[in-house]
Amino acid sequence: MSHIDPTRDAFTLFKGLDRTQPVEMLNLLRFREIAAYPDDRKISGEEAYKTYGRESSAVFARVGGRIIWRGEPQVTLIGPAEERWDMAFIAAYPSANAFLEMVTDPHYQTHAVPHRQAAVADSRLVRHAALPVGDMFG
What Rg, from alpha-carbon coordinates, does the chain have? Predict the structure, then answer.
């Protein structure tokens, strides 16, 4: 089973949390080999995701979003081996309201989301509240 868009229940839970606090969204992405566009254009999932990035960048910036970490996963030490990822990143937003503003923006919905849906074979999107950083794990 793949996960590309939030479920209604998950989105309801997200909206039920404090919307004023800053949030950091962990993104794990696995791309389709060939993007799944309705018009059957033949580009890679990775290229389609780059198009999503270009189309969403103005809205992302307008709401105050920024990428605070990005990486290329190499091996899973703990967890299902079949859950391989092509890209991982953390997007920070000044508030959950800012994230909601982005994902409900009409330009984002019509010009960006179709590229993400065509690009992604599977994904995880996990909301986090930032904690203090230090030299210890706990």
Answer: 16
pLDDT digits (tens, 9 = 90+) for 94-103: 999 999 999 9
108 vs 131: CA distance, rounded Å: 29
Residues 92, 69: Cα–Cα separation, whole Å: 9
Please give the single-letter amino acid code of residue 66: R
List, in order, residues 6 or more apart from 69 with CB less than 8 Å away: 89, 90
For 36-72, what is each residue's pLDDT tens digit? Answer: 999 989 999 999 999 999 999 999 999 999 999 999 9
Q: How far apart are CA 100 and CA 93, in angstroms?
A: 10
Tell me the C-alpha distance between 31 and 125, whole Å: 14
Quote the tokens at residue 9.
């229940």
Q: How far apart (Å, rounded) are the C-alpha atoms in residues 55 and 3? A: 21
Tokens of 19: 């919307």
Helices (H), 63-132: 96-104, 106-107, 113-119
Picking from 15, 21, 60, 49, the residue whose alpha carbon sits closest to that of residue 121 is 49
Q: What is the pTM of this model?
A: 0.92
